[in-house]
Amino acid sequence: MRNLELTREEEKMLHGSMGEAKQKAMEILVALGRIYGAERMIRITSAQIAGVSYKNIGNAGLEYLRHMAALGGRVEVPSFLNPAGMDTEQWEEMGFPEDFAKKQIEVLDAYATMGIQTTCTCTPYLIGIRPSEGEHIAWSESSAVSFANSVLGARTNREGGPSALCAALCGVTPMYGLHLKENRVANLLVHLEAKPENRTDYSIIGLIVGKKAKKGIPAFKGIKPNESQLKYMGAAMAASGAVALYFVEGVTPEWKVSANAEEITITQREIDELKSKLNEADSADLITTGCPHASIPELEEIAELLEKKPVKKPFWICLSRKIKEEAKKSGLAARIEKNGGKLVADTCMVVAPLERMGFKSTAVNSGKATMYLPTMCKQKLIFGRLEEILWK
Amino acid sequence: MEINARVISRGNAVGKAMVSAEPISFLGGVDPKTGIVQERGHPLEGKSVADKILVFPHGKGSTVGSYVMLEMKKNGVAPAAIVNLEAETIIAVGAIISEIPMLDKPEGNVLELLKDGMDVTVDANSGKISW
């Protein structure tokens, strides 16, 4: 078996001379490195840490984060968070439970103590954190991992919340898996007998391929998705399977397919069938979009739709605080909010406690969200393009 | 009998074996208050893993499972030790942060060799399982 070699500085962390928090973090990184056969650690340029919503991590997670902060844990690289369980500014007026909000703030405080930016988003790449091709990072939110690897060509494994935190505290991650170029080879070649035209179509393709690919690497021929469509397709593949990297011929920076790759064809009929299966309710208590978090071009599209016909039901557009601030400055936010949309920052429909807020059915245009809303939020689904769900 | 295994999380433990041929998800799959497996249709459904030498192939599900293991430890219902065939991130990280002794890659098929209720000693300092 190969041995994991540590640098002098990494040895110092492991033996505790750089503090107890780094020691505990390095113990975990070394264990993971040994499990996955890494020969060394690799320096990372950023970390994105999941395990933020109090709904997911509970008291145990909160206690662990507080403990690491109390031991003096401080991050070595720019680090930022996944969405939290609520909008940190308008939780009260939106009806988030107070006991939940209190705990959520404690979670964010613990992360902030460790020097982690409490920018809570699954789309750091929309707010200027765009690692370049070949750059090593340790990200954990599955759709962000997929986007960074596939669309940007950066290199990250699909980290867990705790392992991304450890990487942030030590500034390194074990070099295995998708950090190694030789492992970035597709083993599933996907052909399409369909003409995907919008995010919803791409979402459904993502759901189908993710289920088939599991942990594998799919490669697509014959499609030309834009960035928003890639975001939705990648998120769906990472949710129905554990796809951390995919290629699209002529679109993504990398394209390498194994000679033994399995080949599949997806038809328009399969897409239509899955779409109808994901519609379980006739009317929605809540309409949502922004899974993954919305971009400025997506907000422009929403503003135009709402100007044609305002929305009556509660309509959440989930996004990062930074994009919300930009939309406020440009007047885009006012155009949306005047016609019934609500810009909800820091959180999303999946990690917010919808089940405690009186909602029973939720409409969404994201394939990823359809994987989680029924289980994590006990919601009945309505699924379709924005034009199909806004007035449900 | 004694077999060697790889050390994932250090420590020592003695307890009764509980063996599952199926992977385990701690998030949603096990009640952190009682240690009772609640995943529908799981071979261990309804049984408590508290204080057991828990033997299973590997983890599955969400990485939040690591924090659930820590919560079980705080509630006094964590396994005494864990033996996996092949460790992965969720269980390994959970065992380390919860200070649960853990071994993997045993030199013998523990899913067959160990039976529920057998008295087992896990030495996760030198990497030995004996019964």
Describe this entry's structure for a reader.
The complex is a heterodimer of chains A (392) and B (131). Chain A has 392 residues and is α/β, with parallel strands linked by helices. Chain A has helices spanning 8-14, 20-35, 54-70, 98-113, 142-150, 161-170, 199-213, 227-240, 268-277, 296-308, 321-330, 332-338, 367-376, 386-389; strands at residues 41-43, 47-49, 79-81, 117-120, 138-139, 172-174, 186-193, 218-220, 247-248, 257-267, 286-289, 315-319, 341-345, 361-364, 380-383. Chain A folds into three domains: 8-180, Aconitase, domain 3; 185-268, no CATH class; 278-389, Aconitase, domain 3, CATH 3.30.499.10. In chain A, helix 7 packs parallel to helix 8 (227-240), helix 8 runs parallel beside helix 13 (367-376) and helix 10 packs parallel to helix 12. Chain A is globular, with a radius of gyration of 21 Å. The model of chain A has no long low-confidence stretch (mean pLDDT 96). Chain B is 18% helix and 26% strand. Chain B has an eight-stranded mixed β-sheet. Chain B is globular. The N and C termini of chain B lie close together (6 Å). The model of chain B has no long low-confidence stretch (mean pLDDT 94). The A-B interface holds A 24, 27-28, 31-32, 34-35, 50-51, 56-61, 63-64, 140, 159-163 and B 6, 8-9, 32, 62-64, 66-68, 70-71, 74, 87-90, 92-93, 96-97, 104.
